[in-house]
């Protein structure tokens, strides 16, 4: 049975924290590959500055280009309307059937908000979760989440994994806007793309 990790998100922009989480997940959970899926129109970030989906997709492709076991998918970019994780995983499940096991790779902040998503409990039937925690992260909200009875029954499907990286996309956007360097926190090819296309300025 194939073990496939799904790394979803706005990737606004993709950064070294995303890559570190995916690399550790690939190795620690013996995944066959990790598929990066940039969201098309994220419903939970309507009021935030989210750049064009094609720019976000191109940065993802550039960032993972030479990393073995990483792929990029346009599945959410080509679906009209808002991008909902439950729809994406339903589509992926239909495509791979029982021949694969799906793992949703995300940060602690994302899973802590999962009950606000569309049909969140359906996701537990479609995949397991690999959750990356940042150094010094407060997990109070997460502890409350796993005490919620429907989630409590599925708690064995949530795997926590601590990382040393502590990078946020919002910090990168602020740095670019202020004309400060983003070296060492985004891949060099992504830094060049941001500069060339004058993103976040």
UniProtKB/TrEMBL annotation:
Q: Which organism is it from?
A: candidate division WOR-1 bacterium RIFOXYC2_FULL_41_25
Function text = Catalyzes the reversible adenylation of nicotinate mononucleotide (NaMN) to nicotinic acid adenine dinucleotide (NaAD).
Q: What is its EC number?
A: 2.7.7.18
All residue ranges annotated as the Cytidyltransferase-like domain in the record: 6-175
Q: Which CDD domains match?
A: NMNAT (cd02165)
* One Pfam family named in its UniProt record: CTP_transf_like
Give the UniProt family note: Belongs to the NadD family.
**Name of this chain's protein:** Probable nicotinate-nucleotide adenylyltransferase
Could you tell me which pathway this protein works in? Cofactor biosynthesis; NAD(+) biosynthesis; deamido-NAD(+) from nicotinate D-ribonucleotide: step 1/1
**InterPro entries given in the database record:** Cyt_trans-like (IPR004821), NadD/NMNAT (IPR005248), Rossmann-like_a/b/a_fold (IPR014729)
This protein's source sits in the domain of life called Bacteria
> What is this enzyme's catalytic activity, as reactions?
nicotinate beta-D-ribonucleotide + ATP + H(+) = deamido-NAD(+) + diphosphate
Q: Give a GO biological-process term.
A: NAD+ biosynthetic process
Provide the GO MF annotations for this entry.
ATP binding; nicotinate-nucleotide adenylyltransferase activity
* Keywords tagged on the record: ATP-binding, NAD, Nucleotide-binding, Nucleotidyltransferase, Pyridine nucleotide biosynthesis, Transferase
The gene name reads nadD
């Amino acid at each position: 049975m194939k073990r496939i990790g799904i790394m979803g998100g706005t990737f606004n922009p993709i950064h070294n924290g995303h890559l570190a989480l995916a690399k550790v997940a690939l190795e620690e959970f013996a995944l066959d590959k990790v598929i990066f899926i940039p969201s098309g129109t994220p419903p939970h970030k309507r009021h935030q500055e989210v750049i064009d989906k094609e720019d976000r997709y191109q940065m993802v492709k550039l960032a993972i280009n030479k990393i073995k076991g990483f792929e990029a998918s346009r599945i959410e970019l080509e679906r009209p309307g808002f991008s909902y994780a439950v729809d994406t995983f339903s589509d992926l499940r239909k495509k791979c059937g029982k021949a694969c096991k799906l793992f949703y790779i995300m940060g602690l902040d994302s899973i802590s908000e999962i009950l606000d998503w569309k049909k969140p409990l359906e996701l537990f039937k479609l995949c397991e979760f690999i959750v990356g925690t940042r150094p010094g992260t407060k997990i109070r909200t997460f502890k409350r989440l796993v005490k919620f009875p429907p989630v409590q029954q599925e708690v064995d499907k949530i795997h926590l994994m601590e990382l040393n990286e502590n990078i946020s996309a919002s910090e990168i956007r602020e740095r670019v806007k202020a004309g400060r360097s983003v070296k060492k926190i985004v891949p060099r090819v992504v830094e060049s793309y941001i500069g060339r296309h004058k993103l976040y300025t």
